[in-house]
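User: Hello, can you help with two protein structures?

Assistant: Certainly.
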Amino acid sequence: MTDNNPAADPSPAPLKKSDNPALKALVANGVSVWLDDLSRLRIQSGNLQELVDTKGVVGVTTNPSIFQAAVAGSDAYDSDLRELSTQGKPLEEIVLDLTTEDVRNACDILKPVYDKTGGQDGRVSIEVEPALAHDTHKTVEQARQLWQAVDRPNLFIKIPATVEGLPAISQVLAEGISVNVTLIFSLDRYRGVMNAFLTGLEQAREAGHDLGQMRSVASFFVSRVDTEVDKRLDEVGGDNAAEAQRLKGKAGVANARLAYQAYEEVFATPRWKNLEDDGAHRQRPLWASTGVKNPAYPDTLYVTELVAPDTVNTMPEKTLDAVMDHGTITGDTVTGHYAESAEVLDSLERLGISYTEVTDVLEREGVEKFEKAWGELLEGLKDELAQVTR
């Protein structure tokens, strides 16, 4: 892959930083703030640049649902659709052209952050088609295609953490492609993801890739865990009803905190140290799905309660604004809470709520949700094409 951008100034001006106390505290405690949204309108209006300059945003994540909402809610794509329609391209290629252009332009906006942070931040993610989530070979093929199409060093290819996705993660990393592993819900699967990451780096080293140029994050989903668990807790009655209500809103944070414990364990092993000695960077945990879905809970819950070094929190703008307005960052809220977090999950099991069943459901529904959004994106573009070519 080549970088088509001009070479970075050897002495770049310092990045603008938000003066907001909550955002400054997050950064001071090792948390990178990424935006969980992207649209052409954000790019063209200068809004994304403004978020980087004034709200401390140092990365962007996308998914099929985000692209579907972006295209459906704006006429910013009409001129491109009109032009692409004259080229006789199939709908799937048109989607690829539109989405990779947005991501490429976002990468260019975030490039100064990438340069300033040595590649740790300034990243933009694009996801392989959700229909490929259970096809290892096709996932690898499309990861290569997206990497080449966007053609920017600060790109992340998002690959779902399905069973079939794990070997794809290793293969893509082995080819020197940076990866954002997405749709992680369970601790066992997260350990599998970290193993796939280490395997990929080992293979990349054997292939002669510079490990220092590669980065990865592991997107561990939070709020969806509470949504599913709370639904089951509300069905618990009798003598256990009070205990069930006490546990509402606790599973998502507890699960994520235990994921961080697993992260600390894996990245203290001799296997990792061997890679680190050759220049490799840790795969940072990324807290995803951090917009609070239950209005009864604090709207900053999945930010203030998941502060830990070397993490990323990717937020919808509504959540980012809430954190800036009234978020209270008190320091590390993760590493001292492993025992109580384990007790939350144990208590759920005692109430008959199966952790494995919950996380299996969430993974399946996560893939289905993105497949549905992708289908709606294709249908929406089909209708838009009909409109602009009249």
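That covers the first. Now for the second protein you mentioned:
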Amino acid sequence: MLYTRPSKADCITILSAASGVSDAGTLLALDHRHLGLSRNAMEAAAAFLTKRGCFSRYTFGVGGVSVGALSLQGRLRLDKLANG
């Protein structure tokens, strides 16, 4: 996979979706169509955010990308991206 830095909007979209996960044991399956992103943009943003420790858990597999609740780093990153 060719690494590209994801857009701020793509990161906000994924972090906002994951902010609705309240249980640390629950995983949210990311669907690029429901998020309004291209598949490549979603995967690039998810990889970027997981490498920075933004989720309590995550999986990348044949079924797609799933993320858990936001970690403290994820909440801080969402706040910084959304509020500038």
